[in-house]
Amino acid sequence: MSAHVRLIGLDWGTSSLRAYLYDVDGRVVASRRHAWGIRQLPEGGYAAALQAITADWPPCIAVAAGMVGSRQGWLEVPYVDVPADAAAIAQGARRVEACDTHALWIFPGLRQQAPANVMRGEETQVVGALTQQPRRGAHARFVLPGTHSKWASVSDGRIVAFDTWMTGEIYALLLQHSILGAGVSVDHAKPLPGPAFERGLHDARASGDAGVFGRLFWVRALMLNGELAIEDVPDFLSGLLIGEEFRLASLRDRGDSAVPLCLIGDASLCQRYATAAAHFGYTAPTIVEDAAASGLWQLAWAAGLLAQAPSFGFFGVHA
Amino acid sequence: MSAHVRLIGLDWGTSSLRAYLYDVDGRVVASRRHAWGIRQLPEGGYAAALQAITADWPPCIAVAAGMVGSRQGWLEVPYVDVPADAAAIAQGARRVEACDTHALWIFPGLRQQAPANVMRGEETQVVGALTQQPRRGAHARFVLPGTHSKWASVSDGRIVAFDTWMTGEIYALLLQHSILGAGVSVDHAKPLPGPAFERGLHDARASGDAGVFGRLFWVRALMLNGELAIEDVPDFLSGLLIGEEFRLASLRDRGDSAVPLCLIGDASLCQRYATAAAHFGYTAPTIVEDAAASGLWQLAWAAGLLAQAPSFGFFGVHA
Question: A228, A249, A256, B255: which has the highest count of C-beta atoms within 10 A?
Fold first, then answer.
């Protein structure tokens, strides 16, 4: 395996660490995942996590993106301001001198001054998705659903602006801790949302400019009225919250819903967002998986790290 | 004391129980408060709580409002639909047959069909505030800040419609459980909000139709950027969330911000809402305290319970 190996890429977030091993052509030849996010490191910290997840892999250059570059991470890498393309992001990389086992660089996140906003890790996924969907680079919106869902506007291959919606976190908080979740049990095994999800989308859309607060208490009122079954609460709430993202996004787009959407992330969550996109009149979005792996490779290339370190000779390994 | 005593009123919510003892003129001659809300009853349940909180009080007729009349309460009292005035609410009262110590009636809450909404207890406070502010009855909006903040529109003495904002609950959830509260400690002893509160109001107002989600993550981004001190996070978030209520309320009022606002509730919270009202161009609101006590008396009167049971003779006590 080591013969053609060229780079290790690390997608290192708050709650998980994913490692990719690439061949000289940028193909992922091996990948591993562990729960060693920056909030739950093993004994020995970052170095121990890196060593363990790359055990048996040749010691090539490594690059990382995500919360590992935050103030709470291994090395704080200052944000790069938007607008920014892959080259601008790559230029902001910092080398982790404290890493003894690898030549390791961490890429920066992006910052928007007004309205104030930040991302760490998602920029790398957008870069990866752009590589896979180069036609999208002209003018598109990349949506990354999750705990903090990001909507990034891309123009001519540059991320020019972005929004953050705390949809996933608020959904979880409301179900776990608020009156809306009282007596509700979430069936995590359920693969697809039921009709209550579309009902939530519909109600979000029909709500005019009433805002999410007024709608949230509907969930409780509808349940008390017998108009919403308790087992439908999670899907309805999910529809309301995701619908709120799209309602406000389409307000901003003001009829420009022909802008192509590209969804990046977990397949079942992307499917919910695709349903919402259709409901709000957007053209069918493309869905990109494994965007982080492509993005890390692309940024390593843009940073000149691959040119500096050819796979043959430098590490003394060649087939 | 028992000579002129006529009624016991119970404001019985989720987390507290407050009891009032009235004289024949409806003046409160004694009041007690305990943490025996319907979620934390003493051993012996409702009956024990009632007996303990009215210990040494003469056994007169008792009336109650609040979550004690919910499905999880002592006796479920069906909602009355809006529009409703004091007489309509009073007519919905149900007697608690299971109460051995008092002739006890519980008043219903109010229900709005579309958009679906419910309240229990706040209707009694609005009735009480209307008694104290009869001029307001023609056309006014009553605002009851709290865990679930209620905005009730009153016309000709009837509650015609209302909204619920989960402002207080969401504020607490975000500070206690979300990324926004990471590292933040709330100074509950602080009597007045600092300038960060007004900054939150301003940012909510300036946000156009971007919605609360996008603004919520600002809190994090501004903090990371060094533009918001960590100790200012609670006030800023409070300003954003309360500002969101007023931003959307003023959208609905569409320039009709001359509608008189009446605030009901905790003095320091009402002060925050009064500041927000001024910020959003509303005329200075009146603030009503102890509205529940007036409302319970008023509803008992409207239900004919006071006429049926004069203080002299019926209980055999007279000065």
Answer: A249
Residues B113 and B208 in one domain: no
Which domain covers residue B36, as residue numbers? 2-121+292-308
Q: Shortest Cα distance from A260 to chain B (angstroms)?
A: 21
* Among B222, B224, B246, the residue to mutate for chain A (most A Cβ within 10 A): B224
Q: Minimal CA–CA distance to A81: which of B76, B153, B221, B65?
A: B221
Peptide bond preceding B234: is omega within 30 degrees of 0, i.e. cis? no
- In the predicted structure, residue A300 carries a pLDDT above the cut 60: yes
Say if residues A22 and A297 touch (Cβ distance below 8 Å): yes
pLDDT in tens, B111-138: 999 889 999 999 999 999 998 877 766 7
* Angle between helices A233-253 and A267-279 in degrees, nearest 10: 60
Q: Which of A214, A216, A221 sits opposite B118 (nearest CB)?
A: A221
- Residues A216 and A80: their CA atoms lie apart, in Å, by 36
Question: Which amino acid belongs to residue B169?
Answer: E
- Sequence-distant (6+) residues with CB within 8 A of A140 are A133, A153, A154, A259, A260, A261, A262
Amino acid sitting at position A181: G
Q: Which two tokens stand for residue A139?
A: 């003018």
**Residues whose CB is less than 8 angstroms from the CB of residue A256 and which lie 6 or more positions away in sequence, other chains included:** none
Which two three-digit tokens encode residue A123?
């920029």
Q: Residue B301 maps to which CATH number?
A: 3.30.420.300
A223 phi and psi, to 5 degrees?
-65, -45
State how far the alpha carbon of A316 is from the alpha carbons of A6, A28, A312, B27, in Å.
Answer: 12, 21, 6, 94
Q: Is B169 on the interface with A (CB under 8 A)?
A: yes
Q: What pTM value is reported for the model?
A: 0.89
Number of structural domains in chain B: 2
- Find the residue in A nearest to B251 (Cα): A209
